Amino acid sequence: MAQTAPTDRNVRQVSGLAHVAWRPSWAWLGVLPFFAFIGAFLIWPATEIVVLSFLDGRGQPTLQNVRDLGQSFIVTSYLYTIELSAVTALLGGLAGFLLAYAVTSAGMPRWIRAAVLSFAGVASNFAGIPLAFAFIATLGQLGLVTQGLRYVGISIYPTFSLYSFWGLALTYIYFQIPLMVLIMAPALDGLRREWREAAESLGASPWQYWRRVGLPILLPSLLGTMVLLFGNAFGAHATAFALTGGGSQASVVTILIGAQLSSDAFSNPGLGNALALGMIVIMALTITLYTWLQRLAERWLQR
Amino acid sequence: MRRASYWSWLWLILGSLYFALPLLATFQFSLLAKKGEIGLTAYASVFRDSGFAASFAFSFQTALATIVISALLIVPTTYWVHLRLPELRPLIEFLTLLPFVVPAVVLVFGLSRSYNRTPLTDSHGGLHLLLIAAYVVLSFPYMYRAVDTGLRAINVRALTEAAQSLGARWPTILFRVIFPNVFVALLSGAFVTFAIVMGEFTIAALLAQPAFGPYINLLSSSKVYEPSALAVVSFALTWASIGLLQWLSRGVGQSQLGGPR
After folding, report:
1. How far apart are CA B85 and CA A136, in angstroms?
2. Mutation test of the interface with chain B: which of A25, A41, A78, A131, choosing the one with the most B Cβ atoms within 10 A?
3. A91-126 pLDDT tens trace
4. Does A3 contact B at CB distance below 8 Å?
5. pTM for the complete prediction?
6. CATH code that applies to domain B57-248
């Protein structure tokens, strides 16, 4: 190989300097800029949050910040966010699965499938402030659907409010479903036709096929994707901000953190760190669970 | 062989309704700015507003800077990992997934704490750099996956050896051999990054940067119909960038995940 000669020389030079068993090589230098960058702008800030969560204002170790998370408004906010994320992951996941099932089912024209998948790609990236505005124009007090229903004699306000839990949930589901469709469509394609034919030739009804074959095979990717949707909703900030106006009562955790950061009157920086730490812990658990389920899914589908 | 069942069509129709209605409503609402008639008044007033052009240009430049820096970091790193350090691949994969673990609001919180009272937070230019750095981090998952897929499709080792036997040095190999070969893959990563940066609100707003996302939000406190017009513009922009991405990565099995929430 042409490039081995200079490398060997480099290795010899370096190990000559180092005088240790560990033989460093110049090859590591090639990835240094990337590691330096991600270290400076992601790892260090995240570590800082973790460390500062356990320090008080004078730099002494303390558990007070973590204990402060027990305040009722914070517990309420965490529970609210977890409930919102779980509900939208479940409903969005279910709807997304049905939609993915519909477009991948045999006999569905190919152009419909292509159109739905490419729309899902767009819609999963369409979120935040513009999405909130779209729902205000739809289900706000003056929204198209609200007005239309009023025209036929149904008044959804004040029973329903876009700025309430279910309004927020309905808006979040708009970016949850496309993500589910994007991930589940390939998984549904992975179900081999022979399995279904084998089941049918043994006399299974479609329901029996899904109950005994299809769903069990898909279970890991189904659950895994729903876990991902949970994290997806849990970290959302802009959408909720635009809908609730950043008010900190009865709101999601991301808004609490944003409010801690932007308010000058903020007196307890340790609490902000602990709030952020809580988020990192929940997100890390989520991604770990997702990765594990995804690996399981890959193994099951390969066989 | 078999026809699609009625259930399939039912789910499809329900889904289409749910997804089409908000877009239709936004569009319809944006046309109502002039009392008693349907027209493009809201769009005209948006495009005339100097804040629109300024914030749009700001976000556009930020997006370009993000893409360039991200490409300069990801392409050489991924190339090097393919060529020399395959044992680092799991680590790089893990690191590029981290931006999903640290939500944007937590990232900006950590950044402003870590760089408190440094030139990065003391001046407007510094904050802009910090914003770009945060966006580069957000772009890693998409850029890395795109470039990794692109490099898998070519024979990195053979290309490198061929270039070396012709006397090429590392910069030449990187910029005249590797970059052109992963260009299409890179572009698909770039379009997701573009869509994300153009619509991003959280980080820009919390760093007090005059970006497009905060501008849309700001407008909603003073105007009624214009925000809807901007939402339509923003959707068109997302559609265009993701559409270009999908067109570029036909057959390449590109996976996209969520954008700015």
Report:
1. 51
2. A41
3. 999 999 999 989 888 778 888 888 888 888 888 888
4. yes
5. 0.85
6. 1.10.3720.10
